[in-house]
Amino acid sequence: MAYLISVNAGTPTPTDHSTEPVTGIDKRPVEGAVLVLVPGPEGTAPTGIAGDVVCDLRVHGGPDKAVYAYAREDLDRWERELGRELTGGVFGENLTTSGLDVTGARIGERWRIGGEVLLEVASPRIPCRTFAGWLDEKGWIKRFTDQAEPGAYLRVLRPGTIRAGDPIEVVHSPGHDVTIGLAFRALTAEPALLPRLLAADELPERTKEKVRARLGQQLSQ
């Protein structure tokens, strides 16, 4: 059974690796029930997790990046490779999951968590220099990209409360085959996959615009 290991929220942490002096990537497990909300427009609102901190609203927060989920199974693999403990929230994820194939989740897939909250898979997380600086691992962006286990950003379709231990149920899977893993590879190391992304109507509009722009550049070359 898939379930939530932890719900994680961040506090402002000083950083030299962002346009902002602080980052909210340092997320820690929260005890008890946590309210999940539909955030405001992109660029104006933080994540959908009450109490979570987002410092750079240009690239984080908003409806299409309301919640970030990462699989404990993938963290465990990174623990073995890096030889260090990786606690829930260390990748900046709001939800640390167990028993759920986050990389294989399709864009538009819907997850019901507990009895109230309904989330929709929107897009993969693309690594940035803030993430690299936080992990402090040599060549981190390339290593993370090569592994292609990016975790998933999710929309909040139905708000409510969640807590560690809540079951996660996949209640809808769209008919296309555009997964988080495929979308990540298309947007990073394998641009030949870009045309396939347009089969996913649920892909964020801004991402679709980037895909179309890149495809146009390829055609003009």
TrEMBL record:
Q: List, alphabetically, the Pfam families matched.
A: MOSC (PF03473)
Instruction: Outline the extent of the MOSC domain.
Output: 28-171
Q: Which residues, if any, are the signal sequence?
A: none
Q: Which domain of life is it from?
A: Bacteria
- PROSITE patterns from the xrefs? MOSC
Q: Which Gene3D superfamilies match?
A: PK beta-barrel domain-like (2.40.33.20)
- The protein, known as: MOSC domain-containing protein
